[in-house]
């Protein structure tokens, strides 16, 4: 998951999540009970539990009359695809709804409580996956069920794609966007695993981010080989020194700054809020794309790092074979997060330039294709904005680019735009625990998210 929370501050009235426990409505009890079952199935890679979750969800859906469900096993995991057909002749191409069923490992000893025992405490639902991404997944299930029970008939097909390995291999989404594309082809996708909002501890709204772009993941290896020899006879050519020089050049190198529709919208919103040097730099850069100096100031800020350009960083190092021998091989791993739409081949060429002669640069890992930012469609932006602002009037909705990668990358890669439109809000920074310890979601946020999805689907498929 890649939940971006932006640093916007508005004049909106403080919102309080600790207003005391409210009595749940029967529909909310049903959602909580499903959520409890979902969280308590430990869908961690290697435990083989995803099929049990698929079975639970399939039974829940079938009981409501959703019977077009296809389960695709792959490896130890499964991908689930459901289609809710349009009531009559579809008025448009389908909408794809995305979530992932797997979670990151969590160890009982590290957590305050068992991560796979669902708990309600202090206004929160606790458990591994409560934020990433089981709340979003449950919201898709419950919103479809509520829509169907209310008599709603979609005017276009709604397709659900639940993957079982987003946190690891990403095969579910990759296969869905290739081999199984006929089952999931859509006009665009709404991803529950990205986007969302934040409040400070005192209830000041930080805004909602709508994820419309993500950077491309590539890993490269820098290798220097040398004939080696006895360390009592050092020579000017040395694999470790050569590699060190290359890495030092990489450290100093800055790729060209870039803006796209998403980051332009994001920085325009940020510039309104930032006073001082950072805000000035944002305004200067927005006024002149070529003002690299201003972009460098923005990039240097910890909140904005990675948002202005491609970034590559050394992450691993290895070399030499004996204390008393000249190294025959020295290698560094360089992980890149490439700006949307930039060809990784061009990045590799730039890395070769930086590394210099004598340093071999090879791509060693990749995830998805380089994808452009998804266009800010008026219908999707409008439906999301309306659903959020119905609950939080004046809440700013700002396009966002993830510096990491999600399941969405495979669909953007085949020209299907993807929008991270989670309705979840968290208190920042204390609830930012995805992949971490004692993961939790505010009770009100969990239930509100279901309503957000229901409203968006009424608007977009009604
Ligand atoms: Zn996730």
TrEMBL record:
<dbReference type="InterPro" id="IPR047177">
    <property type="entry name" value="Pept_M20A"/>
</dbReference>
<dbReference type="InterPro" id="IPR036264">
    <property type="entry name" value="Bact_exopeptidase_dim_dom"/>
</dbReference>
<comment type="similarity">
    <text>Belongs to the peptidase M20A family.</text>
</comment>
<keyword id="KW-0479">Metal-binding</keyword>
<protein>
    <submittedName>
        <fullName>M20/M25/M40 family metallo-hydrolase</fullName>
    </submittedName>
</protein>
<dbReference type="GO" id="GO:0046872">
    <property type="term" value="F:metal ion binding"/>
</dbReference>
<dbReference type="InterPro" id="IPR001261">
    <property type="entry name" value="ArgE/DapE_CS"/>
</dbReference>
<keyword id="KW-0378">Hydrolase</keyword>
<dbReference type="Pfam" id="PF01546">
    <property type="entry name" value="Peptidase_M20"/>
</dbReference>
<dbReference type="GO" id="GO:0006508">
    <property type="term" value="P:proteolysis"/>
</dbReference>
<dbReference type="GO" id="GO:0008233">
    <property type="term" value="F:peptidase activity"/>
</dbReference>
<keyword id="KW-0732">Signal</keyword>
<keyword id="KW-0862">Zinc</keyword>
<dbReference type="InterPro" id="IPR011650">
    <property type="entry name" value="Peptidase_M20_dimer"/>
</dbReference>
<feature type="signal peptide">
    <location>
        <begin position="1"/>
        <end position="21"/>
    </location>
</feature>
<dbReference type="Pfam" id="PF07687">
    <property type="entry name" value="M20_dimer"/>
</dbReference>
<dbReference type="InterPro" id="IPR002933">
    <property type="entry name" value="Peptidase_M20"/>
</dbReference>
<feature type="domain" description="Peptidase M20 dimerisation">
    <location>
        <begin position="213"/>
        <end position="357"/>
    </location>
</feature>
<keyword id="KW-0645">Protease</keyword>
């Amino acid at each position: 998951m890649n939940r971006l929370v932006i640093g916007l501050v508005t004049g909106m009235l403080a919102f309080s999540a600790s207003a005391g426990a409210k009595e749940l409505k029967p529909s909310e009890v049903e959602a909580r009970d499903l959520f409890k079952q979902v969280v308590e199935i430990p869908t961690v890679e290697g435990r083989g539990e995803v099929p049990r979750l698929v079975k639970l969800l399939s039974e829940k859906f079938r009981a409501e009359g959703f019977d077009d469900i296809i389960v695709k096993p792959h490896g130890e995991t499964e991908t689930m695809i459901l289609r809710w057909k349009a009531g009559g002749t579809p008025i448009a191409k389908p909408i794809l709804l995305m979530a992932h069923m797997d979670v990151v490992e969590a160890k009982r000893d590290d957590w305050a409580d068992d991560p796979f025992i669902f708990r309600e405490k202090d206004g929160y639902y606790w458990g591994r996956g409560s934020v990433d991404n089981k709340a979003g997944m449950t919201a898709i299930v419950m919103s479809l069920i509520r829509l169907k029970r209310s008599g709603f008939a979609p005017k276009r097909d709604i397709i659900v794609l639940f993957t079982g390995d987003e946190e690891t291999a990403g095969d579910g989404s990759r296969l869905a966007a290739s081999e199984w594309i006929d089952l999931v082809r859509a006009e665009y996708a709404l991803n529950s695993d990205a986007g969302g909002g934040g409040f400070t501890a005192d209830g000041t709204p930080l805004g909602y981010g709508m994820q419309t772009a993500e950077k491309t993941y590539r890993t490269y290896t820098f290798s220097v080989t040398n004939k080696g020899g006895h360390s009592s006879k050092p020579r000017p050519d040395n694999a470790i020194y050569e590699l060190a020089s290359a890495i030092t050049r990489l450290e100093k190198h800055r790729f060209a700054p870039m803006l796209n529709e998403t980051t332009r919208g994001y920085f325009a919103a940020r510039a309104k809020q930032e006073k001082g040097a950072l805000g000035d730099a944002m305004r200067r850069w927005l006024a002149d794309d070529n003002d690299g100096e201003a972009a460098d100031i923005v990039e240097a800020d910890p909140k904005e790092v990675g948002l202005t350009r491609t970034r590559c960083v050394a992450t691993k190092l290895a070399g030499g074979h004996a204390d008393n021998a000249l190294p025959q091989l020295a290698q560094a791993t360089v992980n890149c997060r490439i700006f949307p739409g930039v060809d990784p081949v061009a990045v590799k060429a730039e890395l070769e330039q930086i590394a210099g002669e004598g340093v071999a640069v090879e791509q060693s890992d990749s995830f998805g294709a380089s994808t452009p930012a998804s266009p800010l469609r008026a219908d999707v932006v409008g439906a999301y904005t309306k659903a959020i602002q119905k609950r939080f009037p004046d809440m700013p909705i700002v396009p966002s680019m993830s510096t990491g990668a999600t399941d969405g990358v495979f669909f953007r890669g085949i020209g299907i735009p993807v929008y991270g439109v989670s309705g979840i809000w968290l208190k920042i920074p204390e609830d930012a625990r995805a992949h971490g310890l004692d993961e939790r979601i505010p009770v009100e946020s969990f239930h509100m998210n279901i309503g957000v999805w229901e409203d968006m689907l009424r608007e977009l498929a009604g």
